[in-house]
């Protein structure tokens, strides 16, 4: 495809010199279409440049010194909304990338995968969208810019989606060789019914468009192709679409297909996923409350077994890998939240939360996820059991000895120990044989005895000193525990010369 266009003005915002040089080299290959009007190294310099000259678009790094790409996008979106942006990102910056899209980012490109064809295609698409570049069709493959919707004689269309499998991940040469062989077999098997192909670069998915009159015709060609490509099917992931009627946007349907490769997560026994035979199922319901209740009842191992049983029931089902992982993450979040709200959440558990989530997110098979969940809930059980041991109630008693003179209540104590106050009360009673208020009163009375025997403070002052605001209440508590009123106790102690 060629273009007749005005030059599209581009500002490069990138702190790495080598990346700026690479961008300039790629863009200047099409100098009749694009013009680089500036290069800056951070967001602050970009804003200064924009005050003097506005480009049609920016190519902007996410991670930069002084002002990063996200801050720049926020400012540009408010002040220069007519400037469109393509962002560059490293793999580790993807959370920033997701945030950037709310500021109207057109596309993103991963730096490790920066290629001239994809960058120029993205720039042309953006230029066309802004009306700066005008496409002139000369036929041939349209790539992602113009997904094929041709074949006027055909009444039904199919898409075959292929993605390099785990064996080929990172092995670029082997990927190209294997995909190349598969493409040759598709063309050979389908012959004149093969219409076109294009690549969804971001997801590394190759899409092949087939046009047929009858489903039986497609089935026969597919059997020929899969029979020839058995060896290659072991190294790739393949999805066969349902039939589409004429007029359906094949580009949109291709994008949907690219999102379905995670469904292979649950059944690695099949060579490919045929959506004509296997519908995509809704994720079965999971009783998260039961899981949370079990953990709260100190039965984390049983909670883990419930989740393992649930995951095991998904074997062979066409459900979304991402949805299942999100469900497991949500259950973990809710479990920890329940511990915070209804019992307590030991600091070690909060510290391990990120590691738990990472373990869930990085599994690459259902069996791996099952193993991760079992290990996580076993560890949760160990952490909570240790926290509920003797160490906790000793820390509570130490706290009361230090803070007896303050207005300590069950509610404030529960907040300081990150525990539910009703659970704290029953927990303390079961370990100490008395309630928290009873224990606190005994600590205060012991301190009052010392003050009554050794000081000349008034009874009101002593009550205030040990944490009581009401002298009358102090007197009642003191007499209940000692059998004497504070006044009588002081007189007897002074006669004997020591605390009774």
Automatic annotation (TrEMBL):
Keywords, in A-Z order: DNA-binding, Phosphoprotein, Transcription, Transcription regulation
Pfam families listed in its UniProt record: HTH_18, Response_reg
Modified residues (4-aspartylphosphate): 61
Record-annotated Response regulatory domain positions: 9-126
Transcription regulation listed as a keyword: yes
Limits of the HTH araC/xylS-type domain: 394-492
Organism ancestry: Bacteria, Bacillati, Bacillota, Clostridia, Lachnospirales
Domain of life per record: Bacteria
Gene Ontology MF term list: DNA-binding transcription factor activity; sequence-specific DNA binding
A GO BP entry: phosphorelay signal transduction system
Protein name: Stage 0 sporulation protein A homolog
Function recorded in the entry: May play the central regulatory role in sporulation. It may be an element of the effector pathway responsible for the activation of sporulation genes in response to nutritional stress. Spo0A may act in concert with spo0H (a sigma factor) to control the expression of some genes that are critical to the sporulation process.
